[in-house]
Design a protein that fits this description.
365 residues, single chain, 19 strands, three-stranded antiparallel sheet, mainly beta
Length: 365
C-alpha cells in the first residue's frame, strides 16, 4: 500500500469537487493515511493548498461587471467562469517544515522539497513510518513507505458560477448564488451565496450628469461537497468487529467559504462599460474525513516483521483541518459589452492568487 495511487494527474480539485484520474475514476486513493491520520491530513493540506487557494480566489470573484445597480425590479442572470492562477512560490513545499508525528524522510540527505498538486509531474522524496515492536527493544517495523505525490503540472483552477441580480429600492441590488445538493460523479456539491451592492453616486448630485457610478459591495459564499476516498486494509483476517465492507464509505467533506468587501466604480456609456474594484477578500477551506479508517499496527504475537490490521487500529473520528487560505487586498479591472439585453464581460483580479474571469448574461433595466 503506498501513495503512488495519488500520482495519477488530478486535473481539477475542488473546482467541481470531483477527482478525475487517467482512468476516469472519481475516487481518490489515499493509502498514505496509514502513516497516521494526523500525518496524512498534514501531508494532504500541504499538497492541495495551492488548488484550494486558487479555487477560493476564483470562487470569490465574478460578483459584478458594473457599479450601477439595477433599477427597482430590474434583474440579470449571469454565467461566469473564473480561473485562479497558482503562483510560482506555491509549486513546491518543504517536507522538513511539517511537524509529522510518525512520518520521516527515508533519505534526508537526498533533499526534502516536494511538488504540490500544481507542481512538477515527478514524485517527491520517499517517506516512511516506523513502529516499535512491543517487548523487543530497539526493533521497529516499517508500517508504510511511499513517495510524496507528484504534481499535475496544472496551475490554473476554474470556478464556474451562476448568479442572479435583482434591483431593490434606494439604489441597491441584491445578488444571489445557489446550487442545490447535486451529485458530481461519485461525490456531491451544494452552494449558496449572496451579496449586496449599494450606490454611492446617486446621493451625490455632482455625478448625476456623468456616466460614472460608484458603489459599495459586500458578498459571501459557501460551498460544501463530498469527495469519495479509499483507504483499505490489506486483509480483514484479524478483525473481529469489522469486515472489508465497512471501509467502503469513506469520504472527504469539503467546506469552502469566502467573503468580499469592495468599493467599485464604473463608466457606463451605451453598449460599453469599464469597471474597477478595490477591496478585501478572504477564503477558508475546511477538510474532514468521515468513515472507518484502517491503520496498520504492530502485534508481536502475530508478527515481529510485518504490520497487521486489527480492531485497535481502526479510527472512526478524524479531526478536521483548516487550510490557511489567502486573505488580503484585491484589485480588479474589466469591461462589459451590452447588446440589447445580452452582456459579455471579462476582468482580471490582481492578488496573491490572480484571477481571470469571463462571462455572459442577460440584463434588464
Amino acid at each position: 500500500m503506498n501513495i503512488n495511487h495519488l500520482k495519477k494527474p488530478v486535473l481539477i480539485l475542488l473546482a467541481v469537487l470531483a477527482i478525475n484520474t487517467q482512468e476516469g475514476k472519481a475516487q481518490l486513493e489515499t493509502d498514505f493515511f496509514k502513516s497516521g491520520i494526523n500525518d496524512g491530513m498534514k501531508l494532504m493540506e500541504a499538497y492541495i493548498s495551492p488548488f484550494a487557494n486558487a479555487f477560493g480566489a476564483g470562487f470569490n470573484s465574478a460578483w459584478y461587471n458594473t457599479a450601477k445597480p439595477h433599477k427597482f425590479g430590474g434583474f440579470d442572470v449571469t454565467l461566469s467562469v473564473s480561473a485562479g492562477f497558482v503562483p510560482d512560490d506555491a509549486l513546491e513545499f518543504d517536507l522538513a517544515d511539517i511537524e509529522f508525528s510518525n512520518l520521516q524522510l527515508v533519505n534526508p540527505a537526498a533533499g526534502s522539497i516536494a511538488p504540490t498538486i500544481a507542481g512538477e509531474t515527478e514524485s517527491g522524496p520517499a517517506l516512511h513510518a516506523l513502529q516499535p515492536v512491543p517487548g523487543y527493544p530497539g526493533t521497529e517495523v516499517e508500517v508504510v513507505n511511499f513517495n510524496s505525490p507528484q504534481g499535475t503540472g496544472f496551475g490554473v483552477v476554474p470556478a464556474p458560477m451562476l448568479q442572479a441580480g435583482i434591483g431593490l429600492p434606494l439604489g441597491s441590488e441584491i445578488k444571489l448564488r445557489y446550487i442545490p445538493n447535486t451529485p458530481v460523479d461519485e461525490g456531491s456539491l451544494q452552494l449558496f451565496g449572496g451579496g449586496l451592492m449599494k450606490s454611492i453616486t446617486e446621493h451625490i448630485k455632482a455625478f448625476n450628469l456623468l456616466p460614472v457610478n460608484i458603489s459599495a459591495f459586500a458578498g459571501y459564499n459557501k460551498l460544501s461537497g463530498t469527495i469519495p476516498i479509499s483507504v483499505q486494509p490489506e486483509s480483514d483476517m484479524y478483525y473481529t468487529n469489522y469486515t472489508l465492507a465497512d471501509f467502503n464509505d469513506q469520504v472527504f467533506n469539503v467546506d469552502v467559504t469566502s467573503w468580499n468587501v469592495s468599493l467599485i466604480g464604473s463608466v457606463d456609456i451605451p453598449m460599453v462599460s469599464g469597471y474597477a474594484g478595490i477591496g478585501y477578500s478572504k477564503t477558508a477551506t475546511v477538510l474532514a474525513v468521515d468513515g472507518y479508517i484502517p491503520l496498520p499496527t504492530v502485534d508481536p504475537a502475530i508478527s515481529t516483521t510485518s504490520p497487521v490490521y486489527k480492531d485497535e487500529g481502526v479510527v472512526e473520528d478524524v479531526e478536521e483541518i483548516n487550510i490557511e487560505n489567502y486573505s488580503g487586498l484585491r484589485l480588479n479591472v474589466g469591461a462589459r459589452l451590452k447588446l440589447a439585453v445580452f452582456t459579455i464581460h471579462a476582468d482580471y483580479t490582481y492578488a496573491d492568487y490572480n484571477v481571470f474571469t469571463a462571462g455572459i448574461g442577460i440584463s434588464f433595466r
